[in-house]
Amino acid sequence: MSPALVQLDEYLGQAFHRMPVAMIVVNQQGTISRANGLAESTFGYASGELLGLSVEALVPDRFRARHPQYRQGFTSEEHARPMGAGRDLSGRRKDGSEFPVEIGINPVVTGEGPVVLSVIVDLTERKLAEQRIKEALLQKDLLLREVHHRVKNNLQVVHSLLDLQAMKVKDPEVVSALRDSQNRVRSMSLIHQTLYQSTNVAQVDFNQFLSELMVGLTEAYRSATGRVDIHMQAEDVRLPINEAIPCGLIINELVSNALKHGFGDGRSGSIWITLEKEGQQVMVQVTNDGAAIPEEHDLRRSGSLGLQLVNLFTRQLRGTLEVHRANPVSFTIRFDLEETA
């Protein structure tokens, strides 16, 4: 061998031992013919102890019987590839303990015949970090559920207090105002209840929320709901809580107003609630075939607290409000969801 080739071989040998990953070379007989220092320390062997050992010594006992069959296939490979793609692999230390590994195999033809160069990465620290992240996320999820549960319970207490107050008041207008406030509190409480019961505590399932909300409004406006059919369409729509609360309160106000004023004269009819999400844009529409809204009624400066809240929450959502006053009466709100990191 020429001096230049000798120098190159020495350089490659030094590089092999300086690599920041564990590396072993296995011959056709399954014997370890070369191992760098990191491979020895990773598997708990002293310097030189790995040489001459069967590679199966590094394989956990439960997989050892099948490993020779897999190993024979490695030498026939033409290209480098990860070993056991899609599966969790384990290595066996000298003391018998196991640890998670990632292995890349590279078939190489040498003057001594085909060998397999294996690169082994100890995943112990990575797996521990992943486990810590999973535990942290679980704790965060449990904390959020507890927060939603407590908020829901506190809102239910407020709802009960308003109910007690309404029972002591004789003025019909005051009672009506208290009942309206109860419905608003119930709407917020239902959003937190929906999140508490959901598998995703960051997104409100609006189909479930609307179903529960309509039950409460039906009870609150019993005299009208016997004559009015309510139809809902909000399948597969989920909203972040920052948008869900104002959106839920808008629907609460518009349906309540329709039941009180659109069908307050004894007429029958229908209310349609539609919620659609396309990309980052959401469209909320509440339509009814009840009494028309008079042209002289200024919706922007309405004396109705409900309509004032609709305008307020629409601005909070940075959305637009379109109103059709008759045949049918409809309120359409469009807004874009906030970008999340």
| SS summary, helix count | 10
Structure summary, number of beta strands: 13
Per CATH, the architecture of the largest domain is 2-Layer Sandwich
Computed CA radius of gyration, to the nearest angstrom: 35 Å
Question: What's the CATH topology name of the largest domain?
Answer: Heat Shock Protein 90
Secondary-structure element string: HEEHHHEEEEHHEHHEEHEEHEE
Strand content: 15-25%
Kindly provide the name of the CATH class of the largest domain. Alpha Beta
User: What's the overall average pLDDT, rounded?
Assistant: 82
Detail the poorly predicted runs.
Answer: 1-8
CATH superfamily grouping of the largest domain = Histidine kinase-like ATPase, C-terminal domain
Calculate the terminal CA-CA distance, rounded to whole Å: 60 Å
Helix content: 40-55%
General form: elongated
Main sheet overview: 6 strands, antiparallel
Number of domains: 2
Helix vs. strand class: alpha+beta
Descriptive account of the structure:
With 341 residues, this protein is an alpha+beta fold. It has 2 domains: 120 residues, Beta-Lactamase, CATH 3.30.450; 210 residues, Histidine kinase-like ATPase, C-terminal domain (Heat Shock Protein 90, 2-Layer Sandwich). The chain has 10 helices and 13 strands. The strands form 3 sheets. Strands 1, 2, 3, 4, 5 and 6 form a 6-stranded antiparallel sheet that branches. Strands 8-10-11-13-12 form a 5-stranded mixed sheet, with helices on one face. A two-stranded antiparallel sheet has the order 7-9. A hairpin with a 2-residue loop joins strand 5 and strand 6. The N terminus is likely disordered.
